[in-house]
Amino acid sequence: MSKNLFITGTGTDIGKTFVSALIVKKLASKAKAGYYKAAMSGNLRDKNGNLIPGDAKFVKEISGIEQSLESMCPYVYENAYSPHLASRVEGNPVSMDVVKSGFLALQSEFDYLTMEGSGGILCPIDYDKEGKRPVLFLEDIIRNLALNSIIVADAGLGTINSLVLTANYMAAKNLGIKGIIFNHFHKGNIMQEDNIYMCEKMTGLKTLALVSDGDNDLAMDFETLAGLYE
Description:
two-stranded parallel sheet; 19% strand
């Protein structure tokens, strides 16, 4: 059975998928590593009209893993909306049972399984206005699968507020946090370096790695990274 870890972030488009790809690549260098995401929005279609799970495709290409795209994500939507709205427009709402069964199936195939979230920690995954289905938020998936998380944050302006709010919310909900990875980092940038210092002081969390645009390797050794998985 795999050891597992969840990758969440302070919001959308802050680099969760890029960081996830580097994480999976590092793990795959010495072990069988897999990737999973409950729902992906904003995807393109191939020439046959089939939706391509873009985040999964990116992780697969960067990491070099042979896992099938189909096994990486059970719910793929075209509109670049939160999954609850994308499924309301397109149909096929997210079911926790389907997400969990896909996750459990992968656990028997890999040593390390990395699950990426959709948007930030408060992202609604399914919200039926008529109340016929249970409301499903990202935190419900994390809790149901008994996962600890890494928070990915942008190193730039505004990250103190978004990171501290995310960390405090997760702590209040008893969601385990292993640490922070800062993306879009520029060494020597006084503001970014102070952001990192303040985020650590205000949350008590450790910075696990700093990722710069264009990096092709995660600045963390395999043993340290693998030790975050449970």
